[in-house]
Request: fold
Amino acid sequence: MTNDQQQLSAVIQIITEETGIKTSQVANTISLLQGGATVPFIARYRKEQTGELDEVQIRTIEERLAYFTELEARRQTILASIAEQGKLTPELKARIETTRQKTELEDLYLPYKPKRRTKATIARERGLEPLADLMAAQELTSGSALDAAAPFVDPEKEVPTAEAALEGAGHILAERLADDADCRAMVRRLTWQQGIMATRVVPDKKEQVTKFEMYYDYQEPLKEIPSHRMLAMRRGEKEEVLRLSLQAPQEELLAGLKHRLIKGESIFKPWLEAVAEDAYKRLIATSIEVELRLQAKDLADEAAIAVFAKNLKNLLLAPPAGGKRVLGIDPGLRTGSKLAAVDETGRFLEHVTIYPHTGAGRVEQAKSELLRLVEKYGVEMIAIGNGTAGREMELFTKETLAGAGRHLPVVMVSEAGASIYSASEIAREEFPELDLTVRGAISIARRLQDPLAELVKVDPKSIGVGQYQHDVNQTMLKKSLDEVVESGVNYVGVDLNTASWALLSYVAGVGPALGKAIARFRDENGPFASRKGLMKVSRFGAKAFEQSAGFLRIRGGKHPLDNSAVHPERYPLVEQMARDLGVSLEELSRTPALAEKIDLKNYVSDQVGLPTLRDILEELKKPGRDPRKQFQTADFRDDIREIGDLQEGMILQGVVTNVTAFGAFVDIGVHQDGLVHVSHLANRFIKDPNDAVQVGQVVKVKVLSADPQRKRIALSIKEAEAGGKAQPVQKNEPIRQEAVRVAGAGGLDLSAMEKAGFRVRR
Reply:
């Protein structure tokens, strides 16, 4: 076994111990990853090799493999560096080779790491290292430390007195103590476990009202700070409103360091006690604080990114309206509302601009244009952006349709990120001749048809379902969100003949370059008749075909299975099943009942096991199915369009627009999202708000309070579930105004609360 093979075997064993996944599963998954297989492909089409691991488990293996690969590379660099110095002892080598933590590895290397010129360096140059060794030995129990240091006095070396000699030797010992891996680990552990993060307002900001008022005089145990509060504190520090400090258990730490340094009674004991304090205060405390603050930030980032990823996944997998002819409306007041019609495949047909809100003289013309597009293109649904003038346009559209005897579904669609798309390179490529606002209307229509296909064109950070997305590690955020999009796209599958290159780029094994190549080939040669046609695309090789083909769909293609998730490598197997049943492949693929007659045990082989066979059977039972839930929309009340129309106790329908660690934001159709605090999400304890509600979910809420003046709405799902009836609107009745008291332990984030319209005070 080569050295590389030994190292890989060790990594497999470590990952097995960490995750509890079987060694064979880890080894096979790593082999597939190293062979260029993508996570969605492995999870879907290599279940026999992985033992049916899901995407989360496979990505965990992938991440731990990357971590230990980096660790191993660093380990070899450090071993070589210490060996070159002639200081690599068998004991040190063994510790370096067995550590599994990057932090511990760097601690072990610290004494041998090239340093800038320090007080200890100067002391060594002055010949004081032998005195430091004498002090460290602690064998002298009689006489005085000054007498012991007298031989090291040398004015020419700038050691004028015995006290100066002892001080210099103390610097050497302090550096040794500070560089000791076990000492640093002890300080790090105790500081994390018992440390307090404290925030204070910058003196000249004390009288100012800011969104960080909660943290003007605040403290909380470091290890208990939730993600959103840690990120809020750091943002306050970055904006120079707050000052953060980590208060460590200093007495306990100093006692621990002295215990490690001092062996017993000796003439040097008082000096060694001073050495321990110097080592901690001058050399250890600051570096450990920096480390732990970064560690807390990393943990906060991970939590915030996880929330963002869950929200994005739920948004991307929102139920599609499907292949309907849709009229998309980007509403506006002074500049008019842009109407864009698209066919059932999302192909743009025509656009107009109407002005129903700028004067009575233009209302009839606006009605006429809207009805003309509906009639001309056989519109089946109308999608209206939920931004400015959205509810006004919804009411106008419904009244216009009703007046003409037409009854079409009118759906409010989130505009989040639509303006980003409209000005993007993708939008310019799709519609170079159209205005930005018209592109927005087209996007709104397509979002109703298929949210996933349209939202992949927008940077996920612009969709607005995250928490402190601009404060977290951007590399980690992008990686996580890209994985979410990739997972969602491959879970649903992609229509090869209608998908944009942006959507195609997220298909396993494709990427942006091949996505553009596929779209270009399709434009030049017409729709693909079969999956095999992909092999004619420039630079589309056998590996790309293997990884992507199962996730690409062709409706009405030459091969019956091309519109299913059955991989082409298994077509011969399904053809054999059809022959055994005495039917054609076409008949088997369009008659789900025939699948019930297949005995899977007859088809198990060395290459194909029951997991893959069960997947094939499910596809035959539900050919071409969309795995997403059934389309549903919120029914906003026509008589409630502004906050002033709300009354305490009303029961309304709404759509969840964002989920955070402290609750969920819900659109109830009044231009301002309301906040459902985590305590009002459900009639049970909720640790993760995503366990109670999801982005895009239609929910029933009860109005707890509403403040039109400050645009603040508090809602409750818990109380709405308990029952209640919508109350009649009495616009002149005053609405009780309510301020929210935010306690430090309450887990509320100021900026998000203010977004929901609450005035926050401590």
Observations:
- The domain at 124-307 is CATH 1.10.3500.10 (Tex N-terminal region-like).
- The radius of gyration is 33 Å.
- Residues 203 and 710 are 29 Å apart (CA to CA).
